[in-house]
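General statements about sequence and structure are easier to judge against a single worked case. For one protein, we set the task of working out the structure tokens from the amino acid sequence alone. This step matters because it turns folding into a mapping between discrete strings. The amino acid sequence and the backbone structure tokens for this protein are reproduced below.
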Amino acid sequence: MSTPIKRLEIIRNAIELEDDEIVQSQLSRLKNEACDDALRAIVVALEEKNYSAAMAAITAWLQGQRAVTTWHDPQVAASRLELKALEDRLRDLIDRRNARAQQLDDFNDLYFSRLGPLMQQILQLRKTLAELKLRRQQAEARRREEDYRRCQRYMAQAVETLSTLTQRWCDQPADAVEATEARKHLQQQSNLIANLLAEALELESGLTREEEPARQARDEANEEYEKYREQHHDAEVRLRKGKALSEEDRNELKRLWRQASKLCHPDLVADDLKEEANRMMVQLNQAKQRGDVKAIRSLVARLQQGFEPLMASDRLNDLARIRKKMAQVREQIATLVDELAALEKEESWLLISSLSDLEAWFARQEKSLGEVRASLEQQVHEARLDDVA
């Protein structure tokens, strides 16, 4: 009963101020709150602009109510109104975030539709090129392994020859011509062994140094290709569902989804309704993914008719709980403000918000990616020729 009391006090003050505009604005609300014959009689008098009779009836009704009305802490009303304002702010921020997310999704789907096949060809070529490079590295590693084994054999033979030459030199008298000749051969063999040792060290380090980066590049190219193919497939599914709807239905789907999100988002509703709100959000998002306008329209109707009141400001009467909820909503607002600020600095959002001619941008991208594809095709062709050679 406190609402009609406050409403009538406003109307009485407006009549005293001779402000008919305020009277009429409150009258429409008072009609919905008129719960007894006296209130309905006041409504009729106000509608007929019989302000003298209305003033007398209002004064009598208020005096009668004061005798039975319990006292209400004005801080509760003030805090609930402040909480309502915070909830409105949070609802607006959630809607802005949803709108930006929708814009990003729409752009990404359009990107996949226009450039997806070209990008998939490029990633496939990179994957092929990385595989060819790895095969070339593996072939090079096998060649190095063969050279290393051959070098070992030469080294063994050279060491054996060195031992024979050493023995021959030691068997010669110091002043013999044969000793000088043996020492010369011994020096040449030592130089050969040193060269073979250096070659063996170089081959040994190459065996482990060169293949691993190529293997890692191959694995990364495979992973990037598979990830992009999955994203492209998901985008194609969404686009097919979108094409099944008319442009009018697609626009209504987005509008209804945002409207429903503002009504049942778990961050917006009172704590005791969060579980139910989560379930409804799941249903809402599933209907959106299916492109089911009828299901979303039904959810909106349920929210508007049977899931009210939702907001904590409409359900809480305890001052401590209201103030606790206010603190929670302020934290949520701060988080969303930071989230939106970060989103607006992201490269994808900066691109979307800066594009004035989407068609021209896509044309430039198609040309640029076509050049990249041609370059990769040439590299793959040359790598295959090297592989055959």
